[in-house]
Amino acid sequence: MTAVKPPIAMLAELTHRCPLSCPYCSNPVQMAVRENELDTQVWTRVFREAADLGVLQLHLSGGEPASRPDLVELVDAARDAGLYTNLITSGIGLTKKRLDALDAAGLDHVQLSLQGTNAAMADRIGGYRGGYDRKMLVAEWVGEIGFPLTLNFVVHRQNLAQLPQALAMAEKMGARRIEIATVQFHGWALKNRDALMPTREQAKHAGRIVAEVRERLKGRLVVDYVPADYHEDFPKRCMGGWGTSGLNIGPDGQVLPCHAAQSIPHLKFESVKARSLAKIWYESEAFNMYRGTGWMQEPCKSCDRKTIDFGGCRCQALAIVGDAAATDPVCSKSPHHSALQLQADAHASSEGSALIYRLPPEKTVAH
After folding, report:
1. What is the DSSP letter of 182?
2. What band does 2 get if pLDDT is binned at 50, 70 and 90?
């Protein structure tokens, strides 16, 4: 195996609590309850360990990180550790006073989620009345304070028609970046494929819109785009490659190679409560299981793309094929690719499917 390099980025899921109930939430179906969340002291130690390990960027996420009363203290601790901090937030739970305090603590960047470009769509998808208006107010405060802003617009069949408006909104707000992320079907989203799967034509049209805006706003707005991979011919390079450039830490301290890795039942994930972050990154079985290319089966094993996409997503291979070591069926070289394409079209043509909303952690079983 090639020598393992240190991670560049870390996603700290401070809590699974969230006022929104998005049906595509990336949190696991079985979420960590408040009583199992790492406390301020442990997170502070973990931030120092992350910086010592080589992490440069810290993404503070959830759930909703503003649900943590110690958020300002955590940002201050991350800044003391020398980490660049990005707050990934719905905006709910933030006030102008609290944003000012985060600014004083050294917060570097804000990433604001967007469920739709009007209240009717955004509040319905987020399951939170008044959420859209609050987001717009938070965006104003972010601009007044001067935080660099990224909008994150998760798109799916029900809101893809609003993509042009979302891009215009990012430009009007003075955002530096917008992430157009087609929903990835893990966890809660997997429960909602019939309601959320975009059509093939929607996916192609979204690609054309993104390409046009990238050209028109080059140098003014960065447009990141995660396409609808069920309709693609090659898989995404998930997390830059398993255990390659980033890691996630759950609210309870479990360290994961990606946000959906807990869906792979044969992997055992270690906790920062019991072991140092460095030892977990370099030595744990879970991180080494699919690292590099030695684990690959055919056709990945002999494919000239194996160091480009690293076989695609392990969690998706498990969810669709039943084998986490299989080629991601999104890949046209997978024997399961044609079946996936037919499955995607079937999900996209479903009508009348009700949304299954994310439940709060208190109503789930703790890890």
Report:
1. E
2. low
